[in-house]
Amino acid sequence: MPGATLRELETAVVAEAEAGRMQRSLALLAGLTSGLSGLEVGYMHYRAGFGQRIMWTPIVMTQALQAAGIAAAIQPKLARTLLPAVSALTAVDCATGWFFHIRGIARKPGGWRLIVPNLAMGPPLFAPLLLGISAYLGILAARLQPEFSSASVPAGLRESIERHLCLATGIAALCSGGEALYSHHKNNFRYWVQWTPIAVAPALAAAAFARRGPRWLLPALSVAAMADGAAGFGYHARGILRRPGGHKHLIYNILYGPPVLAPLLFAACGFFGLLATALRGK
After folding, report:
1. What is the pLDDT of residue 1?
2. Which residue range is the domain that position 101 belongs to?
3. Helices (DSSP H) in the chain: which residue ranges?
């Protein structure tokens, strides 16, 4: 029966996660989130006219990490060689980008004395950190075992990876929430629904960082973040189509309209939380 089959599949997936055998999933997640971040970085840097040559490096690194993540999901050996190497290089690039974004904000008129308008109108402060989370996941994937293999991860290492994944969930949620805050501030929070990621993000981060509390809290907030991200994607897509020219000038409206991929990155934070919950086990 379909219901029984789904329950059996769910049981098998949870059992694999509890044993630390989720390398392919985490590698694929690192690659896909990197690809989404790369697209967003691409059109944000395009808006800035690629004023500095270093603005091309995250475009290259995100595509490299995406390819490495997908390749590692197909061939587990690459998850211990290629993926962590590309992830480490991407992490360095993200740290460099964060420095340049901080400097860009500081160089705007008023600098940090006008922090609210300069955060809203300057380089997105948290964007490089969000990309760094994808690199972090790629490094974590190297410590796990591939799904449905005979090997398992020692309990101590599995708990350590679960804590790291919770940390990644919390940081990613705060960064996404921060991005939503100053992005929606530009729009003066025209719609009440724009407040929802601002509310969900810190709650998800708190649940991810907490080592105690109800076991249902992290998965519940993770699902809420995924639902909110999916809804946000719909609203952003609608906002793009409602711009002058609509679908007739789709590329232009994607470049200069609401950041259509940002809500999906917030939804990914929720998925990180679900993976951490699965690793936590019973």
Report:
1. 43
2. 21-148
3. 2-18, 23-47, 57-74, 82-106, 115-121, 127-141, 155-186, 196-209, 217-241, 250-256, 262-280
